[in-house]
Structures are given as structure tokens and as C-alpha cells.
Amino acid sequence: MENLDLQRLPKHIAIIMDGNGRWAEEQGQDRLYGHYHGVISVRKVVEAATEIGIQYLTLYAFSTENWDRPQAEVLGLMSLFVDTISKEVPDLHQNNIRLHFIGNLDLLPDEARQALASATQITAQNTGLQLVIALSYSSRWEIIQATKSLGEQVKAGQLDPTQIDETHFVQALSTKAFPDPELMIRTSGEHRISNFLLFQLAYAELYFTETRWPAFGKEAFIAAILDYQSRERRFGKTSAQINLNT
């Protein structure tokens, strides 16, 4: 913590929370055991983000591809989502954290959608950490939905197709209310972004760690931020140009 430069924190951090199942198998347990312990890691990281002043934190909790996992695991995950949200919302609300959910939420069970709606409403006025949970999320799905939305505006005569630019496209995404992530963390040793925020991560720093998500805590989170702070972000410019501006 004492090594962090609090003036150079990433405003928005995105995390692919990978390795719950493999961690559980390494412990000789079933995969749901890993998911339950993964919730503990979420709590630790949210606490750390709040403590140091991160403004936006997006967690990839469940992808559209995850629907193809064994039914028992999917049903267990849905139950875990509902239970976790119900238990955590009072503390999140007390700590001024606002919850957002992105993804194809229509695919979720009714009970899960009701829990998400309640959590969103309860925390809607909070002004602290903006905690974004990607559930039933696919970046390709999001991009297609955005394209359809722009097409409908063109068809209705509300938008000139020759005027469509990056700003229009960003406003059609489910993340339009949030800045793009500056740092993306993925746990458990995989070196890919797996259909996660493909458009938004264009200029993010990518950080990969072998640590399984259930073993990822505050120290590991701070280590990722320190690594981010050791990098030079040039956005296509030269180092000399960056140094001149600073």
C-alpha cells in the first residue's frame, strides 16, 4: 500500500475472475466449492478498491459461454448469485457502493433478475465505488446489440448514417455510463480476454497472473496496480512527447 502512487491510480479496473473450478479441484473439492470461495475474493478486492479510491470496478462473473457448462454447476452458480447479492447489498449500500449489471440479463432466471433489480434500486443513489457486474455477458453480443440500436435510429430517421462516429457507438454500448478500463486483470494463468469488453479494452494495460481467483486477495490486487503504475502509457505517442507534456 505504501508504494502506491494514489495520484496515478487507474480510474477503472476490469477483472476476469478465472480459476474457481480449478482451484477447487486442486483442493479435492467440487467446482462449486471454488465459486463459493471466489465470493470471498470479490469481497476482499471490493474492499481494497474502496479503500484506495478506485472509482470503477468491473467484474466478469458469468459469460454467455458459461451457460454451456454442466447444468448442476450453472444452477449452483445462479443460486450463489442470488444468495450473495441478498447478503452483500446491505454492506455495499452502507459503504456507498453503487451496483450496475451488464449483459444479456433476459437469460437469467426470474429470481436472479429480481435480485439484480432490487440491488440496483437500493444502491442507485450511492456515489462511491461504481461496481459493475458482467453477468450472462458477451462482448460480441454487446457489439451486435449496439449495431442494431444504431440501425434502428437510422431507420427511424433519427440518425444520419454518414455521421456515425465512435461517440455514437460508445453511447449504444451497455457501458456508456462508464469510462473505458485502464487496467484489465485476469487470474489463473490464461492469456486472453475471452469475449470481455473487446471495444472498451482497446487501450487498457493487460495484467495476467497465475494465481487462481479464490487465492487472489488485497495484496495481489495492489501488486497488479503497482505493475500498472510501472508502465508508460503512450496512446500512440512517443516517450519524448509524453515526457514533454508532463
Q: Would you identify the CATH H-level superfamily?
A: Decaprenyl diphosphate synthase-like
Structural Rg: 19 Å
**What percentage of the residues does DSSP assign to strands (E)?**
5-15%
> Which structural class matches the secondary elements?
alpha/beta
CATH class: Alpha Beta
The name CATH uses for the topology is Undecaprenyl pyrophosphate synthetase
Name given to the CATH architecture: 3-Layer(aba) Sandwich
Oligomer: single chain
Q: What's the main sheet like?
A: 6 strands, parallel
Question: So how many helices?
Answer: 8
- Low-confidence spans: pLDDT under 50, at least 5 residues? none
Helix content: 40-55%
Q: Quote the average pLDDT.
A: 94
Walk across the major sheet and give the strand order. 3-4-2-1-5-6
Task: Write down the overall geometry.
Answer: globular
Number of domains: 1
Keywords for this entry:
single chain; 246 residues; alpha/beta; Undecaprenyl pyrophosphate synthetase; 6-stranded parallel beta sheet; 6 strands; 44% helix; globular
Structure in words:
It is a single chain. The protein is of the alpha/beta class and 246 residues long. The protein has one domain (12-138, 180-231): 3-Layer(aba) Sandwich (Undecaprenyl pyrophosphate synthetase), CATH 3.40.1180. Helix content is 44%, strand content 14%. It contains eight helices and six strands; from the N terminus they run βααβαβαβααββαα. The chain has helices at 20-26, 31-52, 71-94, 110-122, 139-155, 166-171, 218-229, 239-245, and strands spanning 12-16, 56-63, 98-102, 130-137, 183-186, 205-208. The protein has a six-stranded parallel beta sheet with strand order 3-4-2-1-5-6, with helices on both faces. The radius of gyration is 19 Å and the shape is globular. The mean pLDDT is 94.
